[in-house]
Amino acid sequence: xxxxxxVENLSAGYGEAVVLNDVSFSLAEGETMALLxxxxxxxxTLMDTLAGATRQHGGRIELGGEILxxxxxxxxxxxxxxxxxxxxxxxxxxxxxxxxxxxARTGRLGRxxxxxxxxxxxxxxxxxxxxxxxxxxxxxxxxxxxxxxxxALVLNPCLLLLDEPLEGLAPIIVEELLRAIARITREEGxxxxxxxxxxxAILAISHRAVVLDHGAVVYSGSAxxxxxxxxxxxxxxxxxxxxxxxVV
Length: 248
Prior knowledge:
By secondary structure, the protein is α/β, with parallel strands linked by helices. 34% of the residues lie in helices and 27% in strands. The protein contains 10 helices and 10 strands. It has helices at residues 43-51, 73-79, 96-103, 118-124, 126-130, 141-153, 171-187, 199-203, 223-227, 230-237, and strands at residues 3-14, 17-28, 32-36, 55-63, 66-67, 81-84, 159-163, 191-195, 208-213, 216-222. It is globular, with a radius of gyration of 17 Å.
């Protein structure tokens, strides 16, 4: 597999405050990476930095051979970044269908041979099809998250960033979203970086794992290897494990 994303010696933060220090990793086309760490270790800052929402103090971000470091967020979306932030940021005054059609475009496709359209999003998330005329304010938290993911998909990115997509959702919705994410990455071949507080659940559908601590990388390697070493995982995260069955 060819290299899609390359991050070298990245330092970034908010204003003059530096949160990330000398972060380096790479991601191949078609790979999924679990981004793990305790609260406050820099995971969201890293996702925000990849999306262009922080101040980069040093280092280099390269996507598909294109340097992103100096690009604003909207240009990074054009370059192939699909970002689902923690806040979801859907257009609450628009309907579900308007949220999707307002941003849909061909994009810069990665390995996936099929273009993501609103119709394909509805097929992935039937709940959204049932509510396509509902406003964003009329959706549950889980439906808003599905819409946020769908809106990123219709940009047809080559890299999907998901920042805690399962946070605060009911177990049945968590299972539905996990299956959808597994399909998007495994079957569709879309590269993704996923931040999540349920490490076992995300490691089960990821190829690689990176663990941050105090804004620096303390583990970078196989997701399967880390999942099979629960003691090491406990040590790296400093919290008790949350077991989950693999998603198939």
